[in-house]
Amino acid sequence: MPYGCRVTHPSPDPSRLRPAGLATRTAIEDAARTLFAERGFDGASVRGIAGEAGVDPALVIRHFGSKEALFLRTVDTSLGIGSVLDGPLEDVGRRLVAYFLDPARPVIRQRYVALAQAAHHDQVREEMNRHTAETYVAPLAPRLAGADAELRVALAVAQLAGLLDLLFLQRDPILTAADPAAVIATYGDAIQRLLTPPGPEDA
Amino acid sequence: MPYGCRVTHPSPDPSRLRPAGLATRTAIEDAARTLFAERGFDGASVRGIAGEAGVDPALVIRHFGSKEALFLRTVDTSLGIGSVLDGPLEDVGRRLVAYFLDPARPVIRQRYVALAQAAHHDQVREEMNRHTAETYVAPLAPRLAGADAELRVALAVAQLAGLLDLLFLQRDPILTAADPAAVIATYGDAIQRLLTPPGPEDA
DNA sequence: GTCTATACGCGGATAGAC
DNA sequence: GTCTATCCGCGTATAGAC
Hints:
Chain A is an all-alpha fold. Chain A has eleven helices and no strands. In chain A, helix 2 (about 45-55) crosses helix 3 (about 55-65).
């Protein structure tokens, strides 16, 4: 064993060898989806994904070009928000917070962590910015009254991202221990006020 | 040159050799502060810091235990907010946003990026949570009227973090292009409402 | 075209001689 | 305390077998 650089994957474990052929790409994509979700972008290695898929690590790069490109191909940057924004504008703030806090959707948390970890790659960053513009700003800004509609939507997205950041990445103890209903009410209303500031005639 | 694994640092560049002796730790700390600020946590390598300090890379680990420990030792996790929170409670929201957006304080941006990149290390995360509790929650929560004072401060911190995240890490184009004065007013007031919600007798 | 084997250059971290 | 020589893992590249 002359070299110290590659010792880990002597051969792709014959017990899980692919039947060879065209399904290789799919196997890699499936393994990537699983491992990116389980371990995040940094925690999932190209070699690990290859091992899980039963292929050679070099094939992963050969097929997808880079780890970043594989990530962009497999992980859905849209977090499934579209439907949440469709409802009435008056309580979209609370609905957004409730959507992300719903314990029945643990996938959301996984995807957010993976996306945040991958955000230092330029193309992932750009995809996320594109997603913000398309998913949040484009449908929401035209429905808002008042000045700076686009800016206010962007600020609402920032506010939402901050909550997810402290909850899912930072794991702030106060927010983690807090009653979800209180967070949904307080923070949801705060987001709401950015989008539809209460007029003076409001009770 | 038999091995492919280490080719980069043949020797620590005699032109910048330390005078040897006791100042080594200080030299490493200075170099670490500089490079962590310039390139962030991931971008600054132990070998790079050692080169900048004129010492052997192994010495860095020998002295500080790990890159994470060196980071915690050198980078000030407090971002100098203490004084901002001391003033009147009525407009602390705007003051906070203005403090972080002030272009005269580019160091803030650098430190935030470095901290965020290092946040996937457990000890750095814990230090940031400790910092949030000590710097924000402890001094601010007792001054707030109403229920859930601690939670509301934590939510305000989350809201602030979201803005920094989209501005400094994500580099959202809308927020980047926005008028800072508008952001300070709109977002600062939104944070303010979490801390001191306007009563019904408010004009 | 697909896949294997081997390699490169980087990263953080360690053992043990001086 | 300091430094040499490694170690192992990472993402990636490439030559060449099938």
